[in-house]
């Protein structure tokens, strides 16, 4: 009798197990090949930094702090300035992003230079800037001075150029006016390169109200040489110890 009951119990256990397997099979068949409950989707899987290929994310994380969320500037140059994008080449943008700009606050971002962006990510940033913010019609048929200077500047003529095109906003000596601040301040000049000064003169700072090379004086665009000369004049105001307000005491004998 006991043996018969044991056999029946084993049969019942096997039946329940078989039923559970069948039900599980039906559930899986009903869900097809979809993800299991709790399994993250591909979009939810955390990407390694080098795997990120979205321009908006790359720009926000690596550029926006200095150049503004929409490329409109945040202390540094406005990358969304269409005149700037009309004069600068993609190679120059890539090189500046990858290697940084010596003697300025622009650091290198390429892995090969100590940063954390791949060459592909740098290309994505440059191509994204160009596709979103470049506007060929911004020049309105005008030919701007070249991005880089192709001759030496004349400081004396630069002073005359400054008086004509810049003094009305920056003051007769460049030390500022109610319209704009000083551009001969030693600390400021220590943070910007000659190329940065040239870029600002040509492309302007539209989000700060600074005109480009065509609009400092009505109907009188600056020539390439005038741009070069005024940059030479500005650069001549650099000092050896910027930001040092006090004289250095002579060492005692």
**Count of DSSP strands:** 0
Which fold name fills CATH's third level, the topology of the domain at 48-139? Cytochrome Bc1 Complex, Chain D, domain 2
User: Which class do the helix and strand fractions yield?
Assistant: mainly alpha
User: Span from first to last CA?
Assistant: 117 Å
CATH class category of the domain at 48-139: Mainly Alpha
The parts where pLDDT drops under 50 for at least 5 residues are 21-30
Summary of the model, kept short:
The protein is mainly alpha-helical and 253 residues long. It contains eleven helices and no strands.
Task: Describe it.
It is a single chain. The chain is an all-alpha fold and 253 residues long. It has 11 helices and no strands. Mean pLDDT is 85; it is low at 21-30.
Descriptors for this entry?
Cytochrome Bc1 Complex, Chain D, domain 2; mainly alpha; single chain; 253 residues
Write the SSE topology:
Layout: H1 2-31, H2 55-62, H3 64-67, H4 82-87, H5 90-99, H6 119-133, H7 155-165, H8 167-170, H9 186-191, H10 194-203, H11 224-235
Helix pairs in contact: 2-6, 5-6, 7-11, 10-11
């Amino acid at each position: 009798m006991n043996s018969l009951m044991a056999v029946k119990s084993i049969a019942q256990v096997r039946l329940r197990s078989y039923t559970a397997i069948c039900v599980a099979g039906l559930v899986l068949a009903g869900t097809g090949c979809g993800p299991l409950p709790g399994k993250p989707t591909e979009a939810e899987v955390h990407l390694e930094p080098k795997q990120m290929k979205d321009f908006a994310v790359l720009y926000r994380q690596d550029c926006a702090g200095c150049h503004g969320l929409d490329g409109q500037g945040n202390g540094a140059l406005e990358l969304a300035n269409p005149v700037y994008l009309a004069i600068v080449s993609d190679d120059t943008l890539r090189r500046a992003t990858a290697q940084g700009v010596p003697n300025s606050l622009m650091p290198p971002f390429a892995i090969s230079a100590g940063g954390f962006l791949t060459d592909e990510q740098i290309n994505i940033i440059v191509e994204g800037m160009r596709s979103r913010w470049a506007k060929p019609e911004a020049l309105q048929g005008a030919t701007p001075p070249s991005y880089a200077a192709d001759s030496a500047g004349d400081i004396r003529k630069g002073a005359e150029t400054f008086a004509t095109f810049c003094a009305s906003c920056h003051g007769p000596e460049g030390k500022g006016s109610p319209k704009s601040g000083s551009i001969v301040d030693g600390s400021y000049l220590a943070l910007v390169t000659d190329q940065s000064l040239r870029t600002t003169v040509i492309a302007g700072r539209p989000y700060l109200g600074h005109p480009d090379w065509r609009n400092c004086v009505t109907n009188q665009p600056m020539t390439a040489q005038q741009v070069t000369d005024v940059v030479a004049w500005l650069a001549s105001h650099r000092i050896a110890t910027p930001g040092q307000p006090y004289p250095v005491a002579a060492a005692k004998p």
